[in-house]
Amino acid sequence: MNALLLVIIPLVGAGVAALWPDNRTRPWLLPVVGLAHVGLTGWMFLDPPAVVADAWLAFDPLARAVLPAVSLLFLVCAAYGVSYLQIRSERPNRVFVALLLAVLGLLSAGHQARHLGLLWIATEGVTLAAVPLLHFNATPRAYEATWKYLLVGGTGIALSLLGSFCLGYASLHGGGGGDLTFVALMSQGAGLSRPWVLTAWVLLLVGYGTKMGLAPMHTWKPDAYGEAPGIVGAILAGGVTTVAFTAILRVRAVIAAAGEGPIADRTLLAIGLFSMLVAALFLLGTRDFKRMLAYSSVEHMGILSVGAALGGAGLAAALFHVWTNGLTKGTLFLSAGNIRRAAGSPSMDHVRGMAVLTPRSAAIFVTGMFAVTALPPFGPFFSELQLVRAALAGGHGTATAVFLGCLLLAFFGLTRVVFGIVDGRPRTAARANGRRFVETAGVIAPPLVLLGMSLWLGLCTPEILREAWAAAVAQLFPISTP
Amino acid sequence: MNETLNLFIGLAMGLNLLALGSSRLPSLIQAMSLQGMLLGLMPLIMEHEHLDWRLGLIALATIAGKGVVIPTLLRRAMRAANIDREIEPFIGFVPSLLLGAAGTIAAVALSQALPLLPEHAGLLLVPGAIASVLTGFVLLIGRAEAISQVCGYLILENGIYLFGLLLIHSTPLVVESGILLDVTVGVFVIGIIVDRIQRAFDSLDTRKLTALRE
After folding, report:
1. Integer Cα distance of A180 and A170 in angstroms
2. Which residue of A110, A270, A293, A461 has the fewest C-beta atoms within 10 A of its own C-beta?
3. Predicted-complex ipTM score
């Protein structure tokens, strides 16, 4: 029941937002619903409910291991959203607020979905609900980005539907009833028809990989993240990608139960390393600091994919990384949003000296950049360290070398852009624009809180979180629990 | 029953080639709309022995959506943008046709590699599905007008629908209705964006959408 409430509360909130008459007070619905969601998630996290095996929607160990991170990220972004929408009071925000809340509800459904069809419906719903959020700025560039997002994302999500059908047929052909709950598919195991399982894996990996932003299906990401408001970027990079990642994890468990685990792991490792490499190379070339964040997100999706390929220990590290990456990326998107607003341009050709114009946002942005490139004692350092140890323990020497090489290249690329816009003397044209942007507590505190959480995760990872990740690993590797 | 169904799938595959070969947008939309209607009739043919009202409702919704509503919207967008043909596609019409024909042959060959249940063995559903998905891809990649790309996306979805017919007995109706709803909302969202692009760029030529690149 509570699992369903996590979906219903935000959707009801979305309905209220759609009917709310006042443009000025409507944004307050975001933190109100966010707080209720965090409260309920937190309660269910501390006191995990018993899961009925064949339930379609449940707060199972995997949902427990990642959904709280998404919920926390949403709450902080919602608090930022109130100040952001105050600054943008010239634009009507009815659709924006309502759909942002709908995204939260559908994300909760997607993370908790234990049925292949329900999972697809929730993910497709998120994809569609995010569309008007992307073109909130209503510029031609924003529409162009939205168009590319729709075509690439729509095709990806269509392929994952085809993959879901293939997995259903694998069950039907293997003599099963075509029951599409993950529990039923896993229990059928080796009884699933092999050619159909492999076809399904390829289609589902490409489909959900598109949503996650794995290379070479990442092409929508720089455009969408570059043109969307910072708050939308933060939620897409920390929440929507996570639901696609959990989808891939759930499917991988079925493929492994069918006896094709090694093939699934090899493809995940290859596509993960390829994403990291592509992202690192583009990071060295890009001149736009919001597109830079998109490539950084592609890189971290690659890291998650590599982690998922490394067995139980790697998966635990990947779940840890979902938390550290989501929260740290949130810091970067929100502070980058401030800088973008003050600078009037996202390109390092036009922007410099932001340490003078927006000193607080620039300081957070630089610190966040170091955090996301795995500087200790921030969270990403520890999750990536744990991942490297899992890789070395599994005998993946070459993969580890490529992994570390890509991290280094990405570090060069990120520092190049970040210091390019922060250092130096501001351009005179930018000065006037920058003065109009005031760094109020409302736009500074949220990214700072996220940065604090990233630090806290690194310094003292709570034991209960580690226990939650271990439980999720046990759910996905039912035979060989590490 | 199988013969009628195969005839319908064969017709749908023929419409794929028609869609690939025509430069006029009205014929492309027409082909897509006819294909949608054929698809809507298929579940009725498959289940003609035990029809029930829910199946009828889904068939009716599919025919109305894919065959009437969406094509009407696209025609309106086409008139608003004052275009009726694809001038310079990225992949020419003859090459797309050849690709489509090769894809159809490949689809038949490929489907031999996938084992089918005895009751599905004589059906063209799998090759039809693969051929439509490939046709959709060629149109998505090869055409420059936004409307043609939308048609490509819809034909791709038609292919997936064809495949879904294999699971008609086993998927619960809730799931099917959810999928149908999502697809419909998706097309409406695409329609809205097409309209916005038309207003922002005064054109539906996606070659003008090139501001965002490295």
Report:
1. 10
2. A270
3. 0.93
